[in-house]
């Protein structure tokens, strides 16, 4: 397997023993049911590659030499997959499975790892649904340096900035708002709460907590990446404390309130790197889009890293495998992947979607924002809207899948049948005893124990018998499958963790709800109640900072969703305003980020000449001019946008440089920029060096025309 340039890190200098990792493969993940009743989550395809391959590829490239994969339910599927994979044949990289059939928690798993005596030093702890391209070098070095100074520093958690929406109190990955208190000087984690009361946005801290720590920052703009660097003491603590089951809820919170042992957890924040965990269907959708848009580079579809088949990247973020049969009248839109051996019929339209290998898609089919796995058959005239379809599914003619639908393995949907929004359909009948959200790796909530035996028994029913028993009208005439009832809370909560975007009516409803102030004052009470995103410190020389790069990325992601999912511009404004409040940005920052996104869209739309690029740009500006104008509220802000465009033409988007003047004219003609702003910009450049006047000179004819028009207007007024 070829080594990935720029990611491999030399861990030998950091440790005298091989760097090791424990990868926790999940059991039946409640949020991914019914799919995970038949296949473990780590083997589910993420942009056509099993999730575990992303985790192993990152560990291998980051310098890890030994990985112990702990698996419980579906363990044979995982071991069989790894035995046939390339991971077992790589030099200086060993993968060993540890199986258990009676472990029901992360605590049980780590206790068994400790009993096996296979970990000999600091190790990396992740779940098998982790996608990352971060370097471990600095985090490992910081962890070791702290451990030398303080033997109680036993764990380092990787975090990143990810402000939750003020409307939904969720991150873009669909996770609940997380509140952390961190010492700004030492980066020690002092408080961790992922169950914030959204009603008033408050968390309760004991007064002694604030008195014992001279400097504290309380954040609600951090996300837990679920990547931990652990010392051996972590394993021994799980062995000594059988109450520790859940890694965050029990272990982390337990250590933070334990005044006797004195163990400490620290944080390592990443900025430009990528790290995320597929925890629910919304994070599945978000991370898939990030992979397609190459935020996870080099873990992207066109670079081979796990034995995946070669795939070609074309313009507009379109990926195509080999042996595709694509009708000349079919349309493939931006940010779409078509797997090898797939056929697509006449006049079908596919955009912002991932299509697996060996699929057969008929004529006049519309697929938008959906995930179609391998060997799926979709007959003529079907419409799929933000749905997820597993291997071997047959969708007969005229079927409509409403947003949020999940079709599990080998389901058959009868002709002309409309599958209601957020429905989950499976060949397996819904279990009568619903388990909790408890997962083997980083579980979410609840205290239920998985009835693995009964579920395995259900899966042993012969396929033919199961199919006959499930052949009913639930999914149309000649359909095969059961529609599962929604989880507790009904459809009202389904949108939170769906692959579908938040419905417009829900956005409008949330917009009407009162929103708490972003940075209220801190009150010290007998039991201090602290609003998130407030910091308290003995000094004022450590102000909170927001990374503008993160803000720009969030705005671009919001804009692209609007482009490819048909979101109304007023809803985009709601989302951008939410980001603006979250990152404490000005109106100009919003305008700048949106302008960049609009121009990048034009640049990435297929073109081969300057003329085609110009037409793309005119189209993009015309479509999104109202959005741009909303945030350009003064002449100074318009001038800043022109200067932003100059910078783009010189650095990140040089293709625009030859047509700068023509685009400037279009921005004026579409009322995005005013005459006063353009003339003021030109006036400011009069005394500048020649290198700073490149685009003023290019625009000279247009500028002179504006001046003449201004003089004529003055004469008419006189």
TrEMBL record:
InterPro entries found in the cross-reference section: ARM-type_fold, eIF-2B_epsilon_N, eIF2B_epsilon, LbH_EIF2B3/5, NTP_transferase_dom, Nucleotide-diphossugar_trans, Trimer_LpxA-like_sf, W2_domain
Pfam families xref list = LbH_EIF2B, NTP_transferase, W2
Q: Where in the cell is it found?
A: Cytoplasm, Cytosol
Q: Which CDD domains match?
A: eIF-2B_epsilon_N, LbH_eIF2B_epsilon, W2_eIF2B_epsilon
Q: Where is the W2 domain?
A: 545-716
Matching PROSITE patterns, A to Z? W2 (PS51363)
Q: Which GO terms describe its cellular component?
A: cytosol; eukaryotic translation initiation factor 2B complex
Q: Which GO terms describe its molecular function?
A: guanyl-nucleotide exchange factor activity; translation initiation factor activity; translation initiation factor binding
Work out whether the entry's keyword set contains Protein biosynthesis: yes
Which keywords label this protein? Answer: Cytoplasm, Initiation factor, Protein biosynthesis
Cited SMART domains: eIF5C
Look up the coiled coil feature and give its residue ranges.
none
Q: Does the keyword Protein biosynthesis apply?
A: yes
What binding partners and quaternary form does the record give?
Answer: Component of the translation initiation factor 2B (eIF2B) complex which is a heterodecamer of two sets of five different subunits: alpha, beta, gamma, delta and epsilon. Subunits alpha, beta and delta comprise a regulatory subcomplex and subunits epsilon and gamma comprise a catalytic subcomplex. Within the complex, the hexameric regulatory complex resides at the center, with the two heterodimeric catalytic subcomplexes bound on opposite sides.
Which family, according to the similarity comment?
Belongs to the eIF-2B gamma/epsilon subunits family.
Protein name, UniProt field: Translation initiation factor eIF2B subunit epsilon
């Amino acid at each position: 397997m070829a080594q990935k340039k720029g990611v491999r890190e030399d861990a030998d200098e950091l440790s005298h023993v091989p760097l090791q990792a424990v990868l926790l493969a999940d059991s039946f993940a409640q949020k991914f049911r019914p799919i995970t009743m038949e296949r473990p989550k780590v083997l589910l395809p993420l942009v056509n590659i099993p999730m575990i391959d992303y985790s192993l590829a990152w560990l291998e490239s980051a310098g890890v030499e030994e990985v112990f994969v702990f698996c419980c339910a579906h363990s044979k599927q995982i071991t069989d997959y790894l035995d046939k994979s390339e991971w077992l044949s790589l030099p200086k990289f060993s993968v060993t499975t540890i199986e258990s059939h009676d472990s029901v928690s992360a605590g049980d798993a780590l206790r068994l790892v400790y009993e096996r005596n296979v970990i000999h030093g600091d190790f990396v702890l992740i779940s098998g649904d982790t996608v990352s391209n971060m370097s471990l070098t600095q985090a490992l070095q910081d962890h070791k340096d702290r451990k030398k100074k303080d033997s109680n520093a036993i764990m380092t958690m990787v975090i990143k900035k990810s402000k939750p929406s003020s409307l939904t109190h969720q991150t873009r990955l669909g996770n609940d708002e997380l509140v952390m208190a961190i010492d700004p000087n030492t980066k020690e984690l002092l408080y961790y709460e992922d169950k914030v009361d959204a009603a008033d946005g408050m968390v309760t801290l004991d007064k002694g907590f604030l008195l014992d720590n001279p400097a504290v920052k309380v954040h609600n703009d951090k996300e837990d990446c679920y990547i931990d660097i652990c010392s051996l003491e972590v394993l021994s603590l799980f062995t000594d404390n059988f109450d520790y089951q859940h890694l965050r809820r029990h272990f982390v919170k337990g250590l933070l309130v334990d005044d006797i042992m004195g163990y400490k957890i620290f944080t390592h924040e990443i900025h430009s790197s990528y790290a995320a965990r597929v925890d629910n269907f919304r994070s599945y959708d978000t991370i898939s889009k990030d992979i397609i848009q190459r935020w996870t580079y080099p873990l992207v579809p066109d670079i081979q890293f796990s034995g995946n088949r070669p795939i070609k990247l074309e313009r507009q973020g379109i990926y195509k495998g080999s042996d595709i049969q694509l009708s000349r009248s079919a349309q493939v839109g931006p940010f779409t992947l078509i797997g090898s051996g797939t056929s697509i019929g006449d006049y079908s339209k596919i955009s912002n979607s991932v299509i697996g290998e060996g699929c057969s898609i008929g004529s006049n089919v519309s697929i938008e924002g959906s995930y179609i796995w391998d060997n799926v058959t979709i007959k003529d005239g079907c419409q799929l809207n933000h749905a997820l379809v597993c291997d071997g599914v047959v969708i007969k003619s005229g079927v409509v899948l409403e947003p949020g639908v999940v079709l599990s393995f080998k389901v058959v949907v009868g002709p002309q049948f409309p599958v209601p929004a957020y429905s989950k359909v499976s060949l397996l009948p819904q279990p009568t005893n619903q388990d909790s959200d408890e997962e083997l790796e980083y579980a979410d909530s609840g205290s239920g124990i998985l009835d693995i035996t009964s579920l395995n028994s259900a899966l042993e029913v012969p396929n033919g018998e199961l199919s006959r028993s499930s052949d009913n009208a639930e999914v149309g005439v000649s359909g095969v499958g059961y529609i599962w009832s929604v989880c507790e809370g009904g459809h009202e909560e389904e949108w939170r963790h769906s692959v579908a975007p938040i419905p417009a009516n829900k956005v409008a409803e949330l917009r009407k709800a009162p929103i708490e102030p972003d940075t209220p004052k801190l009150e010290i009470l007998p039991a201090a109640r602290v609003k998130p995103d407030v910091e308290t410190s003995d000094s004022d020389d450590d102000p909170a900072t927001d990374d503008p790069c993160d803000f720009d990325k969030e705005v671009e992601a919001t804009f692209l969703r609007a482009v490819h999912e048909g979101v109304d511009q007023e809803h985009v404004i709601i989302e951008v305003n939410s980001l603006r409040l979250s990152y404490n940005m000005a109106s100009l920052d919003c305008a700048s980020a949106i302008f960049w996104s609009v121009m990048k869209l034009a640049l990435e739309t297929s073109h081969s000449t300057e003329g085609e690029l110009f037409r793309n740009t005119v189209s993009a500006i015309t479509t999104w001019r109202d959005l741009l104008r909303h945030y350009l509220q003064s002449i100074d802000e318009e001038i800043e946008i022109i200067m932003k465009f100059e910078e783009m033409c010189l650095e990140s988007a040089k293709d625009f440089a030859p047509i700068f003047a023509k685009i400037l004219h279009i921005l004026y003609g579409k009322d995005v920029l005013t005459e006063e702003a353009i003339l003021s910009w030109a006036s400011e450049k009069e005394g500048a060096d020649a290198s700073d006047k490149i685009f003023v000179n290019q625009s000279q004819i247009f500028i002179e025309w504006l001046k003449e028009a201004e003089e004529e207007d003055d004469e008419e007024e006189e």
